[in-house]
Amino acid sequence: MSYQVLARKWRPTNFKQMVGQEHVLQALVHALDSQRLHHAYLFTGTRGVGKTTIARILARCLSCDKGITSEPCGQCSACMSIEQGRYVDLIEIDAASRTKVEDMRELLENVQYAPTQGLFKIYLIDEVHMLSGHSFNALLKTLEEPPEHVKFLFATTDPQKLPITILSRCLQFNLKNMTPEKIVSHLKFVLSQEQVQSEEAALWALARGADGSMRDALSLTDQAIAYTQGDLQEAPVSAMLGTVDQKKVYRLLNMLVARDPKALLNVVSDLAEFAPDYAAVLEIIVSVFHRVAVEQAVPGVTDNSQGDQ
Ligand SMILES: [Zn+2]
């Protein structure tokens, strides 16, 4: 079997598998359970935080043979074909590649026709902010008086670029960036399932490198597995990321505290072998001193957001 990248393989197919975004999921589950559905949903947030994943799960919730549910079965033909991207009543559009008004008109001409298989015809428009002004106007007419059987799911990284007239007709959900803690705990889970060895510090380095995006974290992990031949230790992972090995900086600080100049210079020359970005080294030192100072002033307040509690 061919290798499937982690981000795809571990893409959640129901709300329970989602990591983070609890505030959004709770609202959606409640709306689905009480059958209080809006006709247009807008998911915003930076890349790789789950916008289209949530939209696809919501499409399942609306299309599952069980009827409208917050727990789609995952077995019926609707659930299966949505996962495989070939469900007739889920029309996915990448607005970045179809910005022209003709595209939008053609699309919206079919809005009036009833769904073929499910209860709803669902339009999932990714990067919706990329549509042209004319396309927005065409869309707006439908949003003003949507047929009962139509649901719009929009996703964008850039909601400021949406016309206010569109925004005001959508139920908007702002997705948060993933915290390093959430990323590390998810990576631990995925790697244990994949039976890949890893050192915790390496996972924190990957989480910091992912900068709030779970998809990036999983892509970097794919890279790291290839780079380290399946044994994720901090030093090679940091080398791959081009980041500074935090453990070395801590050793350096320990030698400083111990007033041991000889040992300190040894650590420095050890560090120098990796030709690090010294500005980044200084940044880590400053950040550690800052966190130590805060902890000294208010004991117990330091969180584990850097993995060094
Ligand atoms: Zn189903």
Q: How would you describe this protein?
A:
- This protein is an alpha/beta fold and 309 residues long.
- It folds into three domains: 6-174, P-loop containing nucleotide triphosphate hydrolases (Rossmann fold); 178-243, Orthogonal Bundle (Helicase, Ruva Protein, domain 3), CATH 1.10.8.60; 245-309, no CATH class.
- 50% of the residues lie in helices and 10% in strands.
- The chain contains 14 helices and seven strands.
- It has helices spanning 6-9, 22-33, 51-63, 77-83, 101-109, 133-144, 164-167, 180-194, 200-210, 214-227, 234-241, 246-257, 261-272, 278-297; strands at 40-44, 90-94, 121-126, 150-156, 171-174, 197-198, 231-232.
- A five-stranded parallel β-sheet has the order 2-3-4-1-5, with helices on one face.
- Helix 6 (133-144) links the parallel strand 3 (121-126) and strand 4.
- Helix 9 (200-210) packs across helix 10 (214-227) and helix 9 (200-210) packs parallel to helix 11.
- The protein is elongated.
- It starts with 5 loop residues before the first helix and ends in a 12-residue tail after the last helix.
- The mean pLDDT is 91.
- Bound molecules: zinc ion.
- Residues 64-66, 72-73, 75-76, 78-79 line the site of zinc ion.
Distance between the termini: 41 Å
Helicity range = 40-55%
CATH superfamily of the largest domain: P-loop containing nucleotide triphosphate hydrolases
CATH architecture of the largest domain: 3-Layer(aba) Sandwich
* Biggest sheet architecture: 5 strands, parallel
Please count the beta strands (DSSP E, at least 2 residues each): 7
Written as H for each helix and E for each strand, in order along the chain, the element string is: HHEHHEHEHEHEHEHHEHHHH
Give me the side-by-side strand order of the main sheet. 2-3-4-1-5
In the residues, how many domains can be counted? 3
Rg over CA atoms, rounded to whole Å, is 24 Å
- Let me know the average pLDDT: 91
> What best-fitting shape do the alpha-carbon axes yield?
elongated
Low-confidence stretches: none
- Please identify the top-level CATH class of the largest domain: Alpha Beta
CATH topology of the largest domain: Rossmann fold
Structural class: alpha/beta
Bound small molecules, deduplicated: zinc ion
User: Strand content of the residues, in percent?
Assistant: 5-15%
Number of helical segments with 4 or more residues: 14
